[in-house]
Amino acid sequence: MDSQKPVHTIVLDTGAIIRNHPTVSTLLAQSEQIITVPAIITEIRDAATRTRVETQLMPFLTIRSPNPASIKFVTDFARKTGDLDVLSKPDIQIVALAYELECERNVKEEVKPEEKDEAKQDDAAEIKQEETTEAVPEQTSADAVQQISEDLAQTKIEEVENTASEEPHQEKDSAGSTESIQNVQSVLQVATLTTDFAMQNVLLQINLNLLSPTMQRVKHLKTYILRCHACFCTTKEMSKQFCPRCGSPTLTRVACSTTSNGEFKLHLKKNMQWNTRGDRFSIPKPVHGSANGRVQGGGKGHWGNDLILAEDQKEFTRHHEAEKRRKERDLMDEDYLPSILTGDRNSRAGGRMKVGGGRNVNSRKR
């Protein structure tokens, strides 16, 4: 069925739902279907926003999860662009769902068996024609010259007749092609509504359609790597928190590009100042706590306990191994229950571990 609306399917992100911009009536007027992933609904914790979503948006919203193949494709693509560690799990699922729907809506038609048989017959006819041309006996030079002159005369007459007859057909074909192009461009099959710049960067590089409620979108598509601010070492492993050369937690996310000559360039921020938070004040002395856990060591608010200062600390290694096991968990396993079913809202698994002392809690706030 031909749709008269600008977009057939809109994939919603959390930002548009929380801000309520555009409104539900606008989304329904501009699209045939509104769809999102289950993790987006769990991210809404405000009582007023959740009530509005359940009463106004949920009757028109379709909940769908992307398949593992789409998630793997988006994860590998985001790893190449350097946006994987910036994107959360719901963000990856949103991009994967948009990619999956785009593939479903714009799937190419398979060749019919009749067309295959016609192609085989054409190939057989061409082979027979080649065999007959090889079997033609050789002609003398005088006969060949006479035949060529006759063919040239006939081709001149045919060209004059064909040009006059083919002009209206060409005009019709060109008019039909322009109309079809306009019809294709007038309706977007799938578009993603998000304000996250990292998601926009991945969506545009995959060549997916993008909608922004605030009319703000990325101007330049970028690829990122990590660069050490202390020793200027670069690495493409975006999951690292410590420099592989000097071991300092001074890795920054930097945009990079490759020129047509194969030259690798880094695009650094002008007048960049390193944040010295956590380095201006000395860390507190280690103070032991009690065995039963009632008394915990450290400074005010237990500041200074379990500080991560190096990559080979057992706390950092233990956290890294637990994070690796969590990522390897199969989401399609029947024994695995996500937080949406268990009701767990306090677990902060999946975040990066805090490195360094941070801001001194005993210093003045203003």
UniProtKB/TrEMBL annotation:
Residues involved in Zn(2+) binding: 228, 231, 243, 246
Region (Disordered): 108-143, 282-304, 337-366
Major site of localization recorded for this protein: nucleus
Boundaries of every Ribonuclease PIN domain copy: 10-101
Alphabetized InterPro entries for the sequence: NOB1 (IPR039907), Nob1_euk (IPR017117), NOB1_Zf-like_sf (IPR036283), NOB1_Zn-bd (IPR014881), Ribonuclease_PIN (IPR033411)
Comp. bias regions, Basic and acidic residues: 108-131
GO CC entries: cytoplasm; nucleolus; preribosome, small subunit precursor
Cellular location(s): Nucleus, Nucleolus
The protein's name in its UniProt record: 20S-pre-rRNA D-site endonuclease NOB1
Annotated Nin one binding (NOB1) Zn-ribbon-like domain residues: 218-289
GO biological process: maturation of SSU-rRNA
Alphabetically ordered keywords of this record: Hydrolase, Metal-binding, Nuclease, Nucleus, Zinc
An example molecular function term from Gene Ontology annotations: metal ion binding
Family: Belongs to the NOB1 family.
Function description: Required for the synthesis of 40S ribosome subunits. Has a role in processing 20S pre-rRNA into the mature 18S rRNA, where it is required for cleavage at the 3' end of the mature 18S rRNA (D-site). Accompanies the 20S pre-rRNA from the nucleus to the cytoplasm.
